[in-house]
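Lab notebook, bench 4. Still working through the backlog of constructs that have no structural model yet. Next entry is a single chain of 572 residues. Request: give me the structure tokens for it.
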Amino acid sequence: MKKYEGLLFDKRSPNGQWTTQAMQGSVAIFNRVDSMFYVYGEEEGSTYSVGQGNAINNNGIIVGGISDSQPAYWQDGEWNLLPLAEADTIAYNSADGITPDGRRIVGSLACSRWGLENNNQTLAPVVWTKGEDGKYGLYQRLPQPATDFSGRAPQYITARSISDDGKTIFGQIVDYTGMYLCLIVYKEDAEGKWSYQTLGQELLYKEGTEFPAWPKYEPKQPQIQNYMSEEELAEYDEAMALYNDSTDLYYQGLIDKFPSYPLYDNYLKNEAKKEEYTQACNKYEKENKAYQDSTSVFNNVFYEACTEKSFAFNEVITSENGRYYVSSLSYPDPDGDPLAWSPEVITVPICFDLQGEKPAMTQLDGNDIITCSVLNDGTVFMASPSMEYTRNAYVVPAGSKKAISFFDWMKAKSLPAYNWMTENLSFDYTGVEYDEDYNEILVSVPDSLIAGTISVNGEGTVFSAFLWDAWSNPDYGQYISYFIDLDPALGIAAPKTEATKVKVYPNPTTDILYIDGNICKINIFDLSGRVVYESSSVSYSIPMASIAGRGTYLVKLTTTDGNIVVKTVSVN
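Model written out:
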């Protein structure tokens, strides 16, 4: 068991050796075995991201992207670009999941040569496969439905996570409007052919609805410039230049009359072209009216049919064996206060078991939650409240619908781990709640156990979590991350002893940063990954204002007993 103060580790490898922190375009990669930190950020205009799915494997390969234009993976201290076709123009990229052996990587791309922008879709799912030469080949685009549940082109379709055997891929479908999401699963058969199946799509609209046909194309208004000669366009440009000069003179008070704006119509003088343009405008008006009437009929049916239910954006939680897919489903609370500042929403956990010929869907207990992990046996981990980082964790055991506290679940599974949690995750909670008249009520609960947002490997032996601690220090809050390794043989070898207690203060600081503790080395990084301070000749007061300036920094402290302590420090 190990706690890290000042860090938000939101991804980890199944064995718990590798973990990442991604924030503000920078990525910090941490190897928990040798305590090595790798930080990447806005160097030479580049930003870095970590994938949305199972983005890290046990060998320390981490998938993500560079500057929203290039899918990439990190290995052995270096970022490597995933291959793209020469004709690809990437508007957005995402490499999101990787198999344990690194053979396959999944993600989503938007490529201009696919013509996706012509039918509303902006993202499509892809998979890269490693060849016998050890290099990744050109991606394969996965099959997908041509339309969403309403019969229109989807806004995007993703591939976020992949099973251990590389034969099941998980993603989401976002409908034409961008408001309603369902789930999608891709499976590879024995011949290597991919097929797909949608999940939960029937929840998004009323049963029996027949949607009218959506117009095949939207009429384009003719542009008069396309009917003008080069001479006519040049004459218009001269008139526009004169107009701009005259407006400057008017505002300077040098002329009395404001100039007239030049209109293209006055410079199209060819009668034949003028007639051709007029006919094109008449045709457009007729076609556009038919288009507007058709879309109006469709929209009336669409909004009447929609249940306003939707799965959570990018919440793609899957078991490592590819059997279970969980996500949270949100919809308006039918008993909610109609006068509330924002619509009151119910958010429930949904679990799909993909083992049978037809996936089995189960709604689990809980509300205002996010789903976090699912074990290979179907045990589901989730956290609440959904919109805060000070969350508590809950578990729905395999074969059950009822949620129990993560602390109670861990107490039955491992008493030493439970005891460690009660010692390290106990807080004197204070917060604000509201009564039915929206009056503030100050709530104080001493010795509150708060587990945070939980991530678990498929066998339930390695746990990581993060939470926002707003109570331990009266001057500032900070993120806390922790790891629990129940089976050292499957985790990162033997658990290490707790790091020497280290205090870094004040935080935030305006100038001097003080350090208390047995420290033998100090490294300070900015969020771009640049080292701004490094010393083995330890000083316990550091002039941050002069060496670093205003901003947020990672302070990495190596203790005399060999442990690493990392603090996030702000300089105002």
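Notes after review: Confidence is low (pLDDT under 50) at residues 493-499. Helices lie at 230-251, 271-305, 406-413, 415-424, 544-547. Flag for follow-up if needed.
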